């Protein structure tokens, strides 16, 4: 059985690298990363993801714009928000796309909490 595909979208290389290394240790997912929404859409055009962990403040396309576009193209099914904006709330638009407060993580979020929610969203655990 193929491993679920996870995309990590963050313009901060250190955050992408730390999350990638953490998630790869569990050998449950195929992990890819991108530094911009535009790059992420290009990657997903070639091979869709099951879930994306998305920073909201990105150069160029915002995280919300990326989620909207990836959903419209059918190239990612689930999303988690990983943001440094402490005043961020799930907008009505993101709610319409299926995100809830449980899908939002504020930096620095524990990678174990992100992993638990990934598993839950993908139906792999009871976290």
Draw up the topology in text.
Blueprint: E1 5-9, H1 13-24, E2 30-34, H2 37-46, E3 49-54, H3 63-73, E4 76-83, H4 92-96, E5 104-106, H5 111-121
Parallel strand pairs: 1-2, 1-3, 3-4, 4-5
Helix pairs in contact: 2-3
Task: Note down, in words, how this protein is organized.
This protein has a 5-stranded parallel beta sheet with strand order 2-1-3-4-5, sandwiched between helices. The two termini are 22 Å apart. It has helices spanning 13-24, 37-46, 63-73, 92-96, 111-121, and strands at 5-9, 30-34, 49-54, 76-83, 104-106. It has 127 residues and is α/β, with parallel strands linked by helices. It contains 5 helices and 5 strands.
Secondary structure tally: strands: 5
Q: Kindly state the percentage of residues in helix.
A: 25-40%
**Helix-strand pattern:** EHEHEHEHEH
Give the helix/strand class. Answer: alpha/beta
Overall average residue pLDDT: 92
CATH homologous superfamily?
Response regulator
Strand order of the largest sheet: 2-1-3-4-5
Reported CATH architecture: 3-Layer(aba) Sandwich
């Amino acid at each position: 059985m193929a491993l679920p595909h996870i995309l990590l979208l963050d313009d901060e290389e250190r955050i992408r690298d730390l999350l990638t290394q953490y998630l790869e240790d569990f050998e449950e997912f195929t992990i890819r990363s991108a530094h911009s929404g535009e790059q992420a859409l290009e990657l997903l055009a070639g091979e869709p993801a099951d879930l994306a962990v998305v920073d909201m403040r990105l150069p160029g396309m915002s995280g919300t714009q990326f989620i909207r576009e990836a959903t419209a193209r059918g190239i990612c099914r689930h999303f988690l928000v990983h943001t440094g904006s402490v005043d961020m709330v799930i907008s009505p638009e993101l709610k319409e796309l299926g995100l809830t407060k449980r899908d939002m993580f504020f930096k620095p979020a524990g990678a174990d909490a992100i992993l638990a929610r990934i598993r839950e969203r993908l139906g792999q655990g009871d976290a």
